[in-house]
Amino acid sequence: MRSFQASGNPVNFLLPISGRRVACENCPLRPLSAFRDFSPAELSFISGFKTSEISVDAGSVILAEGSSSAHLYTLLSGWAFRFKVLDDGRRQILNYLLPGDLVGLQGSVIGEMDHSVEALSPAVLCVFQRDRLDELFCNHPGLGFDVTWLASREERMLDDHLLSVGRRTALERAAYLLAFLHERAVAVGLGQFSGFIPLTQQHVADTLGLSIVHTNKTLRKLANRGLIEWLGRSCRVLDPVELARVAGWDGPGERLRPLI
Amino acid sequence: MRSFQASGNPVNFLLPISGRRVACENCPLRPLSAFRDFSPAELSFISGFKTSEISVDAGSVILAEGSSSAHLYTLLSGWAFRFKVLDDGRRQILNYLLPGDLVGLQGSVIGEMDHSVEALSPAVLCVFQRDRLDELFCNHPGLGFDVTWLASREERMLDDHLLSVGRRTALERAAYLLAFLHERAVAVGLGQFSGFIPLTQQHVADTLGLSIVHTNKTLRKLANRGLIEWLGRSCRVLDPVELARVAGWDGPGERLRPLI
DNA sequence: CGATGAGTTGATCCTCTTCAAGGCTCGTGG
DNA sequence: CCACGAGCCTTGAAGAGGATCAACTCATCG
What are the Cyclic nucleotide-binding domain coordinates in residue numbering (chains A, B) (predicted)? Predict the structure, then answer.
């Protein structure tokens, strides 16, 4: 038997604060080198596509499995994660969401969410009307292609995770995960500022398919080797190159990507 | 340590037999209840989009990791699977491909394949020109949306697999996999004909993240309970409902899907 | 025919789970 | 102010699920 413990905390509920609204033209993410440029027409469509913004606290459920939200989101700032749970509480984290990532695309395209999304840190999301997605595909085929591109990118990350959980050892898995998250954080400029990945060892355990105890011991090994540093509720990556080497991971080969 | 054995056989290479060509209008898959109807305009575009057909033997590599194929495929008949391997030969099967599934979309959209695809049985594929994908998005936004839909569907299946490999026990995993494959086969009419899923226990092991020995013992338990029957190089599912119950799996909730 | 691949089974070992306990920090309330 | 509980991290000990090693059967095939 494996980790039947009810992982995950009692969660807060969504707290839609419609605060200040950043115009897409001034989006702080857009200048980042990770994202491709858009035509003025595309940009203005996206700007109109966005209806509002919401801010959520760490631990808030942004989308719940089984719901069919009327919205599609883009994470503007903060960290979140996608997960599924079995009946008895076993939780599997599927992937992490960082600024620039679409949230809830599966639900928007197919109809109903089959996983949940929870904020890992305080986060801000751009809100889009799901039913205007058709319009996006019809009037801006380039953006339609971009949405497919982003879906393929997610698929690619899941392929990597599956390889990891299925075939890597505990140490390799942990090294892979932290190298992966570090890489993604750096790509969107989060690495520079804080250098901290905001998660608990329970999150790591539920991502790697390990028990919390073994996760702890495994992370300790990485820390003892000087590759990471663990600081209550967050992790600092000290040697991403060596982590990737331990994991036998090539890196994501990330290219310029679209931002919707 | 876990299964470092070099799993996977010496593989045949792609053998493009440009045999008879089925017109898309007469596609044998189209009448199946699993697939949605298309407008005449869409159908005629798809028909022109298709350049040829190829037939491959079981064990042929259809797409190799690292390559950037000029083609995108749809599986017309037969079974295939997507997989990745680590440097030392550990292999992880990511998902299975059945008739109607797109093959190589990731590569077509992002550029380079980061996984391989191998035929599990003799198979026939429809060949599309990758560089005409833009045209599809521009001239037939509905089809563009469909491509995104299919990408989301793949993502959803991967989510399920990840939950399985990460958090289910060996018995649950095996039960889930066979219920899943059975369900998919039935949906495209393969279940009726043969009722056999064409794979070896090594494939099952590489899908579930288990060793071949333990996979064998686990499958035996399912067989002893009368849920499946194993017959060299293939498996017959006897009780899909009970399998799903053992796995704690709800089923895919598959809806009408597009066929490109 | 040997050879090769697939499936099977038992014995042994070890990675990882489970159980248990204790420390640390922080927020809350007396 | 301190007491208290709740998370979170940590560590040791015991047990089990699954890996590894080894051997054997049974088909298929040149």
Answer: 34-104
pLDDT at position A192: 57
Buried b (16+ CB within 10 A) or exposed e, B97-107: bbbbbbbbbbb
Instruction: Report if CB A92 to strand C is under 7 Å.
Output: no
Which nucleotides along chain D are within 7 A of a protein C-beta? Answer: 7-13, 16-22
Would you tell me how many other CB atoms lie within 10 Å of the CB of residue A166?
28
Q: Are B111 and B33 part of one and the same domain?
A: yes
What CATH number is attached to the domain comprising B213? 1.10.10.10
d(CA B238, CA B230): 10
pLDDT digits (tens, 9 = 90+) for A61-119: 999 999 988 899 999 999 999 999 999 999 999 999 999 999 999 999 999 999 999 99
Question: Of B91, B105, B120, B87, whose CA–CA distance to B190 is shortest?
Answer: B120
**Domain membership of residue A228 as a residue range:** 160-247
- Residue B127 to residue B61: CA distance in whole angstroms: 15
Residue of A nearest to B204 (CA): A166
A49: CATH: 2.60.120.10
Q: Which of A109, A153, A156 sits opposite B152 (nearest CB)?
A: A109
Structural Rg of chain B based on CA atoms: 18
Whether residue B129 is found in the same domain as residue B28: yes
Cβ partners under 8 Å of residue A198, min gap 6: A58, A79, A120, A121, A233, A234
Q: What is the mean pLDDT of residues B158-185?
A: 97
Evaluate whether residue A131 is within a structural domain: yes
Same domain assignment for residues B145 and B36: yes
Contact B108, B73 (CB under 8 A): no
- Secondary structure (DSSP) of A81-116: EEEEE-TTS-EEEEEEE-TT-EESHHHHHHSS-SSE
Is A119 in contact with A9 (CB distance < 8 Å)?
no
Spatial CA neighbour of B73 closest among B247, B260, B238: B260
Do residues A172 and A99 both lie within one domain?
Answer: no
Which of A91, A163, A245, A257 should one mutate to test binding to chain B, selecting the residue with the greatest count of B CBs within 10 A?
A: A163
Q: Report chain B residues whose CB lies below 8 A from the CB of A166.
A: 92, 165, 206-209
Mutate to test the interface with B, among A139, A155, A171, A208 (most CBs of B within 10 A): A155
> Which of A156, A162, A166 lies nearest to residue B110, judging by beta carbons?
A156
On whether residue B5 sits in a domain, the answer given is no
Between β-strands A102-103 and A123-129, what pairing exists: parallel, antiparallel or unpaired? unpaired
Read off the pLDDT of residues B22-74 as tens digits, 9 standing for 90 and up: 889 999 999 999 999 999 999 999 999 999 999 999 999 999 999 988 899 99
Contact A255 B161 (CB under 8 A): no
Q: What is chain A's mean pLDDT, rounded?
A: 90
